[in-house]
Design goal:
The structure is a single chain. By secondary structure, the chain is an alpha+beta fold. The protein has one helix at 2-52, and strands at 70-88, 100-112, 118-127, 133-140, 146-155, 164-168, 174-175, 186-196, 213-227. The chain has two domains: 1-54; 70-227, no CATH class. The protein has one helix and nine strands, in the order H-E-E-E-E-E-E-E-E-E. It has an eight-stranded antiparallel barrel. The longest helix is centred in the N-terminal third of the chain and has 51 residues, at 2-52. It is globular.
């Protein structure tokens, strides 16, 4: 009986091997299909993510819209201070009744992306494209390229916060950095969604206060535009 069973097993082995091979082939085929489906889903997710990264221009008050032919390419969430110094001013001007007032001498801010990674630093600096004229400046934290801007329009949206701005870069210039040129394509910049940063109402009333400084915290979003690509 034992010999029969052994013989019976040997006789059925080819069939069992065939069944095993079929199962293995089905397994690998199923695994390949799953892998293909997973890859396809990853491609779709990536494509959707790319479309989701498209920057929509912010809603702004009249006069702050960016000229046609320009599209946003970068947004930075700024956090820092507006730095003021008490200085003499013309008493005949409506905004200088005391003969002294706080003047902005530089912003000092860092811009971050949505993930909290540093993008850009923000300050005043000489613009070499204009013979050293002091301009508001943005410097890329990755490649040190710079964009210099002049004010085109300011709108007060909140009395307790600095104005929203439209700034011209294309007529003031940019500067490539030693390792790149990300900001050199900038044509306009908007400052929007401001909170805080307004000059204080005390601390600069008389000539005795001249030279006093005030560093006022603020936050804002900065939207960088470039010329629309020509297809």
């Amino acid at each position: 009986m034992k010999k029969f069973r052994s013989s019976q097993f040997r006789q059925q082995s080819p069939t069992l091997k065939g069944q095993i091979l079929v199962l293995i082939n089905k397994f690998w085929m199923g695994l390949s299909i799953c892998a293909l489906m997973l890859f396809s889903n990853l491609v779709i997710v990536h494509a959707q993510g790319a479309r989701g990264n498209e920057i929509v221009p912010p809603s702004v008050p009249p006069g702050l819209e960016i000229d046609e032919g320009n599209v946003p390419f970068l947004v930075g969430h700024g956090d820092g201070t507006q730095n003021y110094v008490c200085a003499p001013c013309d008493k005949t001007l409506a905004n200088c009744p005391l003969g002294v007032r706080f003047n902005l001498f530089t912003p000092q801010a860092t811009l971050f992306d949505d993930d909290g990674s540093q993008l850009i630093t923000h300050f005043f600096s000489p613009n070499p494209n204009e013979g050293g004229v002091i301009r508001v400046t943005w410097e890329d934290s990755r490649d040190s390229s710079r964009a210099f801007a002049k004010l085109l329009k300011a709108v007060t949206v909140r009395l307790d916060s600095v104005d929203w701005l439209k700034l011209d870069v294309k007529n003031t210039g940019t500067l490539a950095g030693p390792t790149g040129d990300r900001l050199t394509k900038t044509t306009f910049i908007q400052r929007v969604n401001t909170v805080g940063g307004v000059a204080p109402t005390t601390g600069c009333q008389t000539s005795d206060d001249l030279g006093h400084q005030a560093f006022i915290h603020y936050t804002a979003d900065y939207v960088f535009y470039k010329a629309t690509p020509i297809h």
